[in-house]
Amino acid sequence: MHEISCPHCGKAFKIDEAGYADILKQVRDGDFERQLHERLELAEREKKSAVELAQTKAVNEAQKESAAKNAQIQELKAKVEAGEAAQKLAVAEALGPLEKERNELANKLQLAEQASRNAVELAETKAINQSQKDLAAKDIQIQDLKAKLDAGESQRKLAVSEAVGEVEKDRDRLQNALEKAELEKQLSEKCLTDKYETQIKDRDDAIERLRDMKARLSTKMIGETLEQHCETEFNRIRATAFPRAYFEKDNDAKSGTKGDYVFRDVDDVDTDIVSIMFEMKNEDDRTATKGRNEDFLKQLDKNRNEKGCEYAVLVSLLEPESELYNTGIVDVFHRYPKMYVIRPQFFIPMITLLRNAAIKSLQYKSELALMRAQNIDISNFENRLKTFQSAFEKNYDLASRQFNTAIGEIDKSIDHLQKVKEALINSDRNLRLANDKAQDVTIRKLTRGNPTMAAKFAELDDDAPDMRDGLENSPDHDAVEQPNAESARNT
User: What is the pTM of this model?
Assistant: First the structure.
């Protein structure tokens, strides 16, 4: 028995073990349920906070990465424009020295021609002046110098011819150099023209080849090109980032449809961390009817539920002009639970984001599973206790019924023995009465009113002394006397 005080009135009352155990179980279950609900609510709030923080971080990182990509694109565009400007400048700089050299050569040629003419005129002037001086100085020697004059004339002509020859050689050399520079300029211009024409032709050929390839590609082949890109990107980092992950094509078409890829990752003890159903969508630029991402979400959610995946991700190149899908990771939870739409460049960051968030929530899941296991242990203990109590109660009922049956049989036996006792008591009373009556019988009473018997007893009394003397002298006197005494006592 336990004594319990009422918390309101303070009155004490006693309760048995069963009632006390029931009250204790109610208090314990209520407190445990309250603590369990509090812990579950706290874990759920922490999980939501962690997921929101992870999503915020992912969005911020995606925005930062998008800003960095835009900056990089702008930088590359600036570099391309700077390269084109530098190329034009290089062409201009390459043509400038040639034109400058051509102008310098032309100027040098003009100067050389002018110098040649001046040299010829100067030589002629000098020769004439010298001849006049010689003629004025040597008028008296005209006759003597006639022969010398012919020789001097020959020498003068020879000198003039040599001077003109040197000037002509310089002119020819400069002319050849100018022609060579002009030829090199033409060759350089032709080489640059051929180079850019070849690049333009190669670019046009590449564009035409891509257009031809796109024209020959079917819709399925275009989609498989995006699938191969995503598979290659994943296999590139599989060994370092996802060593225990499963990423394969979905080949299970039992339900009539299937997704493109299924991603599953587990921890060291093979506990599921995260599972993702991927769908890749691409299309040709010249397709008349352009697909929309919205058209594939319902089927993707169905495939996710049928394959038991936690998340669904649509990797899409559809709607290339949409600012919504071009900004980064698009959450479509308002349409279908745990579903995202991304561009191919966010394929690996999306897997990493979901996996890291799942690892954080896995800790809360483990704690929740531990609490549930503890609750299950308590429930099993209570069930076993109830089973034991039921079995004990059943055995107690059987034993009680058997005990009551035994008590009833004992009572019946007691009643029977009581009847036997009463019969024995009555028999003893009758025997006692019979004994009393037998003790009350005497010779006098027996012979009263019977002379014959009185005479017989009188004769016996007369013979009695002789019989007593014989008995006293007999060796068996004691043995005979004792039985007689015993018989007398019995009588």
Answer: 0.36
